[in-house]
Design a protein that fits this description.
The protein is elongated, with a radius of gyration of 14 Å. It is built from 3 helices and no strands. The chain is an all-alpha fold.
Amino acid sequence: MNKELQELRKKNFEQLNAELVATRQEQFNLRIKHKTGQLNETNQLGIARKKIAKIKTLMNELKSQDSK
């Protein structure tokens, strides 16, 4: 398990939600920079998308644990 995922697993639902909002804002800014030709490291778009997926997966895991 990578270090980023371990750090995300330590957070509660509200903290994950805040992290999700921040990452989506970062993704939006990266998309704007990419469209205007200012983004040199285009791999950052994929990294942000994967981080969003990890956060959403952990949030769903927490929801399913609460419903049991």
